[in-house]
Amino acid sequence: MRFLLILHGESRADLPRTDFEHTARDAGELIGGEVLAHPQLAVTLPDRPGPTAIDAYYVVDVEHLDRALELARLLPDSRLDGRYVEVRPIMRRSGEL
Question: Residue 83 in contact with residue 17, Cβ under 8 Å?
């Protein structure tokens, strides 16, 4: 089952996320992810002020939600004030999880 881990908070490309990346990659569960540019560079359609401060994202493919949460807890974003990790299942085109 694939999950999107959305890292919320102001841009912090300096946060060490290597424990998460090594663990997920070594287990064959890391599909991909990127650190995003500062929200001021975002364009929102339709035009609305203040895009959401999403710093980065990862896609993981794991057996169940508990494993996705275990991986998300390895991210420093899950432990810092003003930051959090949203774990969201990715649906298939058929509408199934």
Answer: no
Contact between 1 and 97 (Cβ < 8 Å): yes
**φ, ψ dihedrals at 69, nearest 5°:** -65, -40
Specify the CATH number of the domain 2-89: 3.30.70.1060
Does residue 25 contact residue 19 with C-beta atoms inside 8 Å? Answer: no
For the chain, what is the radius of gyration of the CA atoms? 14
Over residues 17-30, the pLDDT tens digits come to 999 999 999 999 99
Beta strand spans in 36-83 (E): 54-61
CB 71 within 8 A of CB 20: yes
Average pLDDT over residues 57-80: 97
Tell me the pTM: 0.88
Identify residue 81 by its one-letter amino acid code. D
Structure-model confidence comparison of residues 20 and 42, the more confident one: 20
